[in-house]
Each structure stands twice: as structure tokens, then as C-alpha cells.
Design goal:
single chain; mainly alpha; 4 helices; elongated
Length: 75
């Protein structure tokens, strides 16, 4: 596994801003994110496994931030 390649891809995804969402504003599942960014074709099986874990953590973090922002709006 090329750790530098994976880290660079993660940094690039983070630099894009929020993760992509579907037409209803829902966060895309990890497998869809892998396809969205074209990672299945560019990463080895080990790198794909690592990237799936990282994307899952990124989704969880972004959803947590969304919940915090919503809680700030409520009285």
C-alpha cells in the first residue's frame, strides 16, 4: 500500500469542501463516494480498504458537524 498516495487523495478530497450529497441532501454512502471520486480504478485492494475506512470517518465527522450546526439554530 502506498501511504503517500492515499494521504494525498484524502487531503485532496478534504480540500474540495463538503462531501458530495444526493439530490435529497443526504450524504452519499462510502461505496458511492469511492465511485464518485474514481478511487476503485486507481487504488489497489488494500488501498481501497483503507480509503473506505477513511471516507467512513470523514462522513461521520461531517454529519456530526451538521448536527452541531443544527443545534446552534435551535433555541
Amino acid at each position: 500500500m502506498n501511504v503517500y498516495k492515499v494521504r494525498s487523495i484524502i487531503a485532496w478530497i478534504r480540500s474540495q469542501g463538503k462531501l458530495p450529497r444526493d439530490a435529497y441532501g443526504q450524504m452519499l454512502p462510502v461505496d458511492d463516494l469511492m465511485a464518485w471520486f474514481g478511487l476503485n480504478e486507481r487504488l489497489s485492494p488494500g488501498e481501497q480498504l483503507y480509503m473506505r475506512k477513511e471516507l467512513g470517518l470523514m462522513v461521520e465527522a461531517e454529519l456530526s458537524l451538521d448536527e452541531l450546526k443544527l443545534s446552534e439554530l435551535l433555541p
